[in-house]
TrEMBL record:
Protein name per UniProt: D-malate dehydrogenase (decarboxylating)
Domain of life, source organism: Bacteria
Gene3D superfamilies (UniProt xref): Isopropylmalate Dehydrogenase
Residue span(s) of domain Isopropylmalate dehydrogenase-like: 5-348
Classification via Pfam families: Iso_dh
A GO term, aspect molecular function: NAD binding
Reaction it catalyzes: (R)-malate + NAD(+) = pyruvate + CO2 + NADH
Cofactor names: Mg(2+); Mn(2+)
Listed SMART domains: Iso_dh
Stretches of the chain forming a coiled coil according to its record: none
Amino acid sequence: MKKFNIAVIPGDGIGPEVIDEGIKVLNKAAEMDTSFQFSFTYFPWGCEFYLKNGKMMDPDAIQQLQEFDAIYLGAIGFPGVPDHISLRDLLLNIRKNFDQYVNLRPVKLLKGAPSPLISIANENIDMLFIRENSEGEYAGEGNWLYKGKSHEVVLQNSVFSRKGTERIIRMAFETAKKEGRSLTSISKANALNYSMVFWDEIFEEVKSEYPEVETSSLLVDAAAMLMVKDPKRFEVVVTSNLFGDILTDLGAAIAGGIGLAAGANINPERKYPSMFEPVHGSAPDIAGKDISNPLASIWSASQMLDFFGYKKYAQAAIDAIETLLLEGQILTPDMNGTSSTSEVGDRIVSIMERMISHSY
Ligand code: NAD
Ligand code: IPM
Ligand code: MN
């Protein structure tokens, strides 16, 4: 029996609520298959921990996490702790230290999901965003000069290394090739005359090695417009850290809402643990009301099952989400339903159980 040790960081706001439901899905998969099981170890890190201890995580958090097969995270950030401290010290710190340089974010419209674009898209929204996740605009370097003076200047540097840029673009080409889908690179070389010129050059270089992959290159402003106007044209998409952050919230909006958007932070070499988390944040406005949508967190759990090689259960979780959306009965208020977070999670596992035992 294979045992996967998972570090769970429920985090802040709605994080713990949605994580509970994803864990139900992981446990259901393990319960239905005698070949593997999960063991979960919880870490109380986040904003409350910070207010008590002056730190977002234990000082040796990275060493502690290194021992696990994966990390499952809810959300971080809460009023009372500045966002640039809470997010940089915890979430971005883990992504960076574990070289989780691939951020995989599916933007896939399931049947029954509410999309404002349903008539344009003809239900055909199926993108895979591959966001650079280790450097770029998130490098965290800069300078704050002449603070408080009238000639105050702030510099926020981006870092695009050849290694970092090439590996994410190559990963995107490999994915597009394997899936037989087109690849779109999104950049902004008309204004960003170093970083994005470099990005585009590397994209062209790597492209010459993949003649079988159909490609296009778009400027990020036009890409945002086209994601709404003609979402079908996007299949595999590769872009920088910041552009990927922004465009995947847009992607969430057109593919059923932020409550459905999932993400995986992958270290492809598997030297370090990968981390699975919803795209959304801690949603302080609805925290503690038991109305947060757990589907994004459940979809991230499906990405974890897929990462471990259990495609059957990963797909069962997605199919269960689709069935739930088509039934339209048990949904949280963000999807115009009246159900609670845990009612949605319970329904998902019962659909999964039925699917796995009958039709798979
Ligand atoms: P948010 O994603 O938390 O919320 C945006 C809006 O979407 C809110 O109206 C919220 O109620 C709604 N929403 C989000 N997730 C939902 C869900 N599962 N079900 C129903 N509604 C949902 O973004 P924000 O308000 O910009 O940020 C809040 C905090 O979260 C900030 O501290 C921010 O830095 C942090 N944040 C953390 C992460 C992360 O941990 N991965 C991601 C994004 C934002
Ligand atoms: C995300 C989040 C994070 C990011 C924030 C909270 C630092 O918005 O995962 O999309 O920008 O990467
Ligand atoms: Mn984001």
